[in-house]
Amino acid sequence: MYNEGIGLAEVKKSSPSPYTGITGYSRKDGEILTIVGKDFEDCKQKLFREYGRNYTIVGRRPKFIGGFLGFGQKEGLEVRYTIGLQKQVSPQEEFQRNRDEILNKAGTSVTNTMQIANIDKKINDFEKKMEQKLNDIANATRAGDKPESIQKIEDLLQENEFTFSYINKITTRLKAELSVDQLENFDFVQKKVIDWIGESISIAPKLPHTFPHVVIVVGPTGVGKTTTIAKFAVNLIKEAHEKNEPRPRIRMLTTDHTRVGAVEQIKRYGDVMEIAVDKAETADDVKKIFDTYKDNLDVLFIDTPGYSPKDFENLGKMRKMLEVQGFHPDVYLAATASSKARDLNSIIQNYEVFNFSSVIITKWDETSAIGNVISVLSEKGKSVSYITDGQTVTKNIERSSVVRFLTNLHDFTVDRNHIDEKFPEDK
Q1: CB within 8 A of 426, min separation 6: which ones?
Q2: Is 69 left (phi over 0), alpha (psi -120 to 50) or beta?
Q3: Whole-angstrom Cα distance, residue 49 to residue 162?
Q4: Which residue of 82, 360, 371, 388 could cross-link 161, Cys pair, CB 3.0 to 4.6 Å?
Q5: Across the strands, what pairs with 80?
Q6: Measured between alpha carbons, how far apart are the two ends of the chain, in Å?
């Protein structure tokens, strides 16, 4: 084992060496050398690979490593040590010594050859198992590898386009919470990871609302806001019909006067559903329409123009336009399932000014990887309320669920009965 007891005052100056992370050309016994690593355990592993147990640590101190011209450096650790102060013991010698000690403590008679043979066999078997495990660990450490199950999980998460930070959280948790034996069981590891992914998905609950219920859908251009509003309206009409309830009083209002054909598109939807459609170009227009119809209205859907998340000026104007006294709206952010993680992160961040309550994931059918959505929503602490797929207005919209996300994980083996039981709110 290493020793750590000599003070920094006794450390001598060392010089650079060609060895990776190690300074000091000479390996002369007693000379003080240094090694740099990301932390103390990393330094000890490097020393063990280089010298076995034949070293003595004499001090350590923080040291910045990496970077370029002083930028991007990370804090590491420099360890000072000497070599040759301890006698190197071979694995065979150490085993022989441990075996003799075990026999002595057991009070075994040298004349009892049968008993000695049995003990020898047990010890030999144990030695082989330990030697194999140590070799596996040593080989993995030298190659910079990970346990096979963790590597497979990382590969699966990457294929599903989870973010690097999300993957790192999963692998860190695997190392911290699972034993070596559990990590060797990939089915167990995979099941755990799927559970953790499910736990990281926040589903927006259904909340009561006041009448008239104002629903505003915001988001960048091309995410399908107008179609989503039409789907909302159709669903309300269908639900009322199925429950033998009166048809809800619905109006649709568009504030989108920038996109060519925007007004015509929503009016076509309105004509088919026999829903009145209004157009507003100013905050006064929005207030006037709301005040005119609010007493005879169940739901007012407001379609908005699609601006780039970086178009701060127009986003600010749109927010001011929708600040109507007495509105109390439910604001949804629409984003496509195929959005890159970086873009989705920017969309969420820059549309925060609208205080949206949850996210609608649109165009679900246009991607096979939804790790980007799960990662960003989890990291931003945002919930998802609806999922839309396809262009058929009369359907293709549904309440979101953890199970829907998990069953769309690519190449994961998902135990449907297990996740239905674990996430019962999805039933």
Answers
A1: 203, 401, 402, 403, 404, 420
A2: left
A3: 34
A4: 371
A5: 34, 59
A6: 57
User: By the 8 A CB rule, do 134 and 180 touch?
Assistant: no
Residue 210 and residue 326: Cα distance in Å, rounded? 10
As beta bridge partners, residue 203 has: 384
The residue with tokens 């000890």 is 44
CA distance linking residue 37 with residue 355, whole number of Å: 45
Q: In degrees, to the nearest 5, what angle opens at C-alpha 236 toward C-alphas 319 and 323? A: 15
Backbone torsions φ then ψ of 252, nearest 5 degrees = -120, 140
Give me the mean pLDDT over the 287-293 stretch.
Answer: 93
Nearest to 80 by CA among 156, 5, 168, 133: 5
Confidence of residue 208 (pLDDT cuts 50, 70, 90): confident
Identify the CA nearest to 414 among candidates 185, 154, 230, 197.
197
Q: Are 99 and 108 in contact (CB under 8 A)?
A: no
- Write the single-letter amino acid at 222: G
Number of Cβ within a 10 Å radius of residue 182: 13
Higher pLDDT, 374 or 90: 374
Question: Among 239-248, 366-375, 383-392, whose mean pLDDT is lowest?
Answer: 383-392
SS (HEC) of the chain: CCCECCCHHHCCCCCECCCCCEECCCCCCCCCEEEEECCHHHHHHHHHHHHCCCEEEEEEEEEEECCECCECCEEEEEEEEEECCCCCCCHHHHHHHHHHHHHHHHCCCCCCHHHHHHHHHHHHHHHHHHHHHHHHHHHHHHHCCCCHHHHHHHHHHHHCCCCHHHHHHHHHHHHHHCCHHHHCCHHHHHHHHHHHHHHCCCECCCCCCCCCEEEEEECCCCCCHHHHHHHHHHHHHHHHHHCCCCCCCEEEEECCCCCCCHHHHHHHHHHHHCCEEEECCCHHHHHHHHHHHHHHCCEEEEECCCCCCCCHHHHHHHHHHCCCCCCCCEEEEEEECCCCHHHHHHHHHHCHHHCCCEEEEECHHHCCCCHHHHHHHHHHCCCEEEEECCCCCCCCEEECCHHHHHCCCCCCCCCHHHHHHHCHHHC
Total-model pTM: 0.66
Tell me the HSE value of 137 on the side-chain side, using a 13 A CA sphere. 10
d(CA 366, CA 389): 8
Determine the residue type at 303: D
